[in-house]
Design goal:
Largest sheet: 2 strands, antiparallel
Number of helices: 18
CATH class: Mainly Alpha
Structural class: mainly alpha
CATH architecture: Up-down Bundle
Radius of gyration: 23 Å
CATH superfamily: Amino acid/polyamine transporter I
Distance between the termini: 17 Å
CATH topology: Amino acid/polyamine transporter I
Length: 527
């Protein structure tokens, strides 16, 4: 393989190139990739579930927290873009961290993706189930998250979305475009109507005039408050990396997925800032009525405030129901786009013999990873059913809080891997220094700090909805969030050891190996 003069911007190749895994190439373009990235973050669902908690933590400074949480996400997205240009492998974090730090770190990076995706599926399915009944005014069922009917519909959504993922990315992308259009249109309508009502004096008591001071980080009362708010808000950006997980099925696979990842984060911060400012202006930050800090509204800020925004008239009723449909489609869309990256991660791990070979089995017609996709769906159903019946369903809520540990772990690892793999090129230009080194590394530092801070905070038994007492001395009481977040990651260690004993080739330095692969002359010429 030949190289060009532009190759001096690349580290020396000492490992194998990406392996063809049998996926259908060229299925997605830039627009479809961005749709998948934004849909994976589930904007409506994420705002509904998180905004109230952030307001309780930081008060009027919620808008600046939205912006600050965006910074490490953008830094890591830039790292993904750089790595994908050099090595467009659907294993993403698993493959790149293996190339940077060896098979053991790489395996745990892949495990982090699996953990985060499985934990969030229970909450997404539950929300989809609840909002299906709320949409049809069956509030008795829809307001009971542990209802057997909600569980049944949630499982049905999981099965349907798993089937769509098996059918291939073409139909998945088409469904996502429809669902995301509904979601974005309703979010914009909600924000615009809320701001107009504030401007015309038709907002409820406690409403506020938007202020630039809401974007002042120095108005926060302590560093601890800042960290708590950012940790809560980081979760709502998670998911954009799905665009890179489907890189081997994307046209111009070296460039399009990375561009889509960065564009996805930018679109997300724009809509999050708009909706946060609008909701805070209209509802205020009080603890009564529609106030965002009202404990009765925290679980679903958008739904609680939406009725007041649109009013009780005929048009208001229609718009309120469309708002419910928006959250429903948001959760459903994210259910589908959560399955996609996990299946491709385990596919890549199986191809490189880090998981059993069955996970690399492809559908002969649809060219999708059948076992990996169905396996992800099946495990998610089992976890959701178990969480629904254990601890009165509270494990579902704690699972959402625990996800941040796995997210920060594998995003942070990817940032460090980018800086390390490109370390020999950082001095060749200012652009390379920042986009391959400074930004990804800082993103990794911020997220690893967030993981450590979270782990310490959620050890306390009152940090979430559940806890567990050690049955022998010293009889520690441990928070359920800690057990789900840290415990799920630790569970990967015996599985790693089992794979090491079962198939040692990968762990002895087999493919993908260390360092980035040599790229083709054509790709290098376009760098």
């Amino acid at each position: 393989m030949t190289t060009t003069a532009s190759d001096n911007n690349r580290p020396p190749a000492v490992s194998s190139a990406a392996v063809d895994k049998g996926l259908r190439p060229g299925t997605l373009g830039l627009l479809s990739s961005v749709v998948i990235g934004v849909a994976s973050a589930a904007p409506a669902y994420s705002l509904a579930a998180t905004l109230g908690l952030v307001v309780i933590a930081v008060g009027l400074q919620s808008p600046v927290i939205v912006v600050l949480a965006f910074v490490p996400m953008l830094f890591i997205a830039i790292g993904y873009k750089e790595l994908n240009e050099a090595d467009p492998d659907c294993g993403t974090t698993f493959t790149w961290c293996t190339r940077a730090f060896g098979p053991y770190v790489g395996w745990m990076g892949g495990w982090g993706i699996v953990v985060a995706d499985v934990l969030v599926m229970a909450s997404l399915a539950q929300v989809a189930g609840q909002y299906t009944f709320l949409l049809f005014n069956a509030r008795g069922i829809g307001t009971d998250p542990t209802s057997g009917w909600v569980l049944l519909v949630g499982v049905a959504f999981m099965v349907l979305m798993t089937y769509l993922c098996v059918r291939g990315l073409e139909i998945s992308a088409a469904v996502q475009r429809v669902l995301l259009t509904i979601e974005f249109v309703m979010l914009v309508i909600f924000a615009v109507v809320a701001l107009v009502r504030v401007a015309t004096g038709n907002a409820p008591p406690g409403s506020l005039t938007p202020s630039v001071s809401w974007f002042n980080p120095f108005a926060l009362d302590s560093f601890g408050t800042l960290v708590t708010g950012v940790l809560l808000m980081i979760f709502i950006y998670w998911g954009w990396d799905s665009t890179v997980s489907v890189n081997e099925e994307t046209a111009d696979k070296e460039r399009t997925p990375g561009k889509a990842a960065v564009l996805s984060t930018i679109l997300l911060v724009a809509v999050y800032v708009l909706v946060t400012v609008a909701a805070q202006s209209f509802a205020g930050v009080g603890t009564d009525g529609v106030g965002l800090a009202n404990p009765d509204n925290v679980g679903d800020v958008v739904g609680s405030v939406g009725g007041a925004v649109f009013g009780a008239g005929a048009l208001g009723s229609v718009l309120s129901h469309l708002l419910l449909l928006m959250v429903l489609t948001s959760a459903a869309a994210s259910t589908q786009t959560t399955i996609l990256p996990t299946a491709r991660t385990t596919l890549s791990m199986a191809v490189y013999k880090a998981l059993p070979a069955s996970f690399a089995r492809m559908h002969p017609r649809f060219l999708t990873p059948t076992v990996s996709t169905v396996g992800m769906g099946l495990v998610s159903v089992v976890v959701y059913v178990a969480f629904n019946f254990l601890s009165g369903g509270n494990l579902v809520y704690d699972a959402v809080s625990a996800i941040g540990i796995a997210i920060g772990f594998y995003y942070g690892l990817t940032g460090f891997a980018c800086a390390w793999l490109f370390r020999r090129t950082l001095g060749t230009s200012v652009r390379n220094l920042f986009q391959r080194g400074v930004f990804p590394f800082l993103g990794g530092v911020i997220l690893f700090f967030a993981v450590g801070w979270t782990a310490v905070k959620v050890w306390a038994p009152d940090a979430g909805y559940t806890s567990w007492t050690l049955p022998f001395a010293p009889h520690w009481q441990i928070g359920g969030v800690f057990l789900l977040g840290v415990g799920s990651m630790v569970l990967g260690l015996p599985l790693l050891v089992g794979m090491r004993l079962h198939n040692p080739e990968f762990f002895r330095g087999g493919p993908p190996g260390k360092g980035l692969p040599t790229r083709s002359t054509e790709v290098l010429a376009r760098s």
